[in-house]
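Subject: mismatched residue count in predicted assembly?

I count 515 residues in my input, but I want to confirm that the predicted structure covers every chain. Input:
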Amino acid sequence: MSEIPSDPDRACAADRERTARLLAEAMSGELAGPVDAHRLLAGARTRAHSLRRRRAVAATAAFLAVPALAIGANTWNLPGPGRTSPADAPSLGSAPAPVRSDPEATVPLPTRASVPVSTRASLTWPENSVLLVPDEAVLGGDSLGEGYRELEESDAEQDVRTTGISPCASLPGSEVLAVASRSIVIGQPDPDQSMPDEWFLHAATRVFAGSGAEEQIRWLRENISSCEPADGTMDTPLRVSKVSQDLNSTVLASRVGVSTRHPDSITVFAAVRVGRAVTGFTLFVPARVGDDAGTREEKALSTATSLLSLARTRLESSGLGPLSEQDPRLGGVSWSGTGK
Amino acid sequence: MFGAGTQAVEFTDFVALRGPGLVRLARGLLKDPYQAEDVVQDVLAKALLRWSRVSAADDIDAYVRRMVVNACTSWFRRAARRERPVQDGSLPVRVAPDHAEPLTDRDRIMGLLRRLPVKQRTVLVLRHYEGLPDTDIARVMGVSEGTVRSNAHRGLARLRRFLCEEAGATTEAGR
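Triage response: the counts match. Full output below for your records.
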C-alpha cells in the first residue's frame, strides 16, 4: 500500500521543511564539484579580448550610424501613418497631444544604440546627436508582468497587452518624445468608467541631446503631461524629485495623488537616467487597490521603486552610461517622498 | 591589455576567490550545468572590461552575482528560442525506465529543480544554496521581496508536488 495519501497537496503540505532540507542537501552535493579557477581566469581574459575587438568594430559602425539616428528622430515629424507632424506635435507648454498606442502605428526604433564605454571616449559625438532607448529594452520582459501580478496577490483575470510605441511630441534640439504603454488588467473592468480597474504602465522614452539633469527635471516637471491623455488625469502641477543618485545613475520620480476623474487613485511618474540615456514610466494605481490611501501609496511607491531599479539595471547593463558624461550638477537632493 | 596594473591584480584575485562560487551558482541556475563555466567566463569577461565600474560598487560580490543571474536567465531565453519541436515519431519511445543507472535522491531532486520555471528556480537556489536573505535575493533579481517570497513558496510547493507525484508513481509501479 502506498505511503503517499491520495491527495498530493495534503501529502506535500506536511513535508515542506523536509523538501527544503532535501533541496539544500542536494544542491550542496551536486553543485560543489571542483572548479579550475585558473582556467576560468584564462577563459575570461580571452573572451574579454575578443569582446573588446567586436565592440571596437561595433563602435565604428555606431559612430557612422549616429547622424542617421538623429535624422531618424527628425523624420518622425514627417506626416505619415502613425507619425506626428510638426504641426500636430505640441511644443513646450502647449496643449496635450493624443497618445497613439496603436501597435500598427509604431515607428521602428533601433533596438540597440549603445557604444561601449571603453571606446566612447575616443568618439566625437555630433552636436544634438541622440541616443534612443526603447522601453522594451528597459522595462520589457517576464519580470515586469510577474511583478505586477504579485501586487494584487490574486490570480483573477489578467491581461498583459503588447507594448506599442508612438511619437507624441517633438521638442527643441531634435528631441522627440515617444510614449509606449502596456497594461495588466487585474479583476473585472468597471464598465461605467472609461478607465477600468487596471494598473497602467505607460513607459515614456525620451530622445534627448545631452541635456543636464536640471534641464531634465525641468522638462519632466513642465512637459510630461504633453503625452498624457487629455482627460484631466492631472489637475495639479507635477513635482519631480530625485529619488537617488550614485556614480552611475540618477532616479527621478514624482507622485500625483489627485485625479479629477479618479479622485483616490495615485499616479507615479518616474524616470531613470544613466549617463546620457533616460527612460521612464507612469504608474497608475486605481482607487480600489488597497484598503486606504496609505496602503495604496505604499504599494505605488514600492512598485515604482522596483521598476526603477529594474530599469536602471537594464540601462546600466546596456553600456549607455559612462561616468564621464554624468552632469556634475547632480547631487545633494534626496528623495522627499514628494506629494501631489 | 589585461595583464598588468592594479585593476588586473584585483580582477585576478576576485576570480580566484569568487570564481568557483559563481560557477557553482550557475550550475544551480542553468538547466544544463555543464554550461555553467561557459556562462561565468562570459560574465567575467564583461566584468573585466568595465572593472573600474564593477570595483566601485558597494558590494562587488553582489554586483557580479547579479550579472551571473541575468546571464543565466538570458541563457534560458536564448536556449528556448533555439529549441524547435520535432516531428512525432522521430524520437525513440522509451517504454520503461532505465534501471541500469538508478538515480540517487540528489539527482532526482536536482532534476526536478530544473523543471521549475526560471524565476522559482533562481529564488530557490539563491535562498537554499547561496543562503541569501530575501532582501539580497530581491536586489540580485531586480524584483520585490514579495515576489521573492511568492516564488520561493510556489517553487517549493511545486517541488513537493513533483516529489509526491513521483513517489506515488513509483509506488503504483511497484504494486
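The radius of gyration of chain A is 23 Å. Marking this ticket as 'not a bug'.
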